[in-house]
């Protein structure tokens, strides 16, 4: 019984220490956040502050951007933390996780859709009809087989982008009108007077920090910005198997 009592006392002390360390860490993170917010001003909102893998260095999230600071909030560090033993880029992995979405949050009814082959592999592309890199990507995507591509139009470049997006969506065959314009240079002829999902797509883009086109999403929620090479897309598809 005496041994059992000692064991219980030891466990209770250990739990108390863990709770105390957690409380102290939380207080330190809050203090760093408060002090840093004062220094950078209220116009730049800090989303969170947490302890980084390096003692005395804190990870700071501003929007979806990652920075680091010291315990006194004297320095703001912009760069990457790499674990030497494994070569793991901790900052890059955190950035990937921050940019990840839930595939289920995408509403396919707001997208143009094309299926090639058995359509088993899926990806979503956010595109502007006046985006040169989007046109380059769309030409590359023609090489993919057994794929379903959902294209969400977000006219962010100009007023003409909005007009062309409406004309494409309101065409008799929106997907064909999109391909004709993006790949063959045939101007869409739709009147642009139908109901479109463009506002919903723009809201989604703003909510998830999609600020450039093209932006690709895969079914695991990860995103690839820019005109990604087909080899990189194929490699990503292989990793999802």
TrEMBL record:
The keyword Signal appears for this protein: yes
Organism annotation: Polynucleobacter duraquae
Disulphide bond isomerase DsbC/G N-terminal domain residues: 25-92
Cellular localization per UniProt: Periplasm
Signal peptide: 1-26
Protein's recorded name: Thiol:disulfide interchange protein
Domain of life (superkingdom): Bacteria
Function in brief: Required for disulfide bond formation in some periplasmic proteins. Acts by transferring its disulfide bond to other proteins and is reduced in the process.
């Amino acid at each position: 019984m005496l041994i059992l009592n000692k064991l219980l006392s030891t466990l209770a002390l250990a739990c108390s220490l863990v709770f105390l360390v957690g409380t102290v860490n939380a207080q330190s993170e809050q203090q760093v956040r408060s002090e840093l917010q004062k220094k950078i001003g209220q116009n730049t909102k800090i989303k969170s502050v947490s302890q980084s893998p390096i003692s005395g260095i804190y990870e700071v999230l501003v929007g979806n951007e990652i920075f680091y600071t010291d315990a006194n909030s004297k320095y703001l560090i912009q760069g990457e933390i790499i674990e030497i033993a494994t070569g793991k880029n901790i900052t890059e992995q955190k950035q990937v996780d921050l940019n990840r979405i839930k595939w289920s949050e995408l509403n396919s009814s707001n997208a143009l859709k094309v299926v090639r082959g058995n359509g088993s592999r899926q990806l979503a592309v956010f595109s502007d009809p006046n985006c040169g890199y989007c046109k380059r990507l769309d030409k590359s995507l023609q090489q993919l087989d057994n794929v379903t591509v959902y294209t969400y139009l977000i006219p962010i470049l100009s007023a003409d982008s909005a007009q062309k997006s409406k004309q494409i969506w309101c065409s008799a065959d929106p997907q064909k009108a999109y391909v004709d314009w993006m790949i063959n240079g045939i101007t869409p002829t739709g009147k642009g007077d139908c109901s479109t999902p463009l506002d919903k797509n723009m809201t989604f883009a703003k909510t998830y920090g999609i600020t450039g086109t093209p932006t690709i999403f895969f079914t695991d929620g990860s995103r690839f910005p820019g005109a990604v090479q087909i080899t990189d897309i194929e490699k990503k598809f292989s990793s999802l198997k």
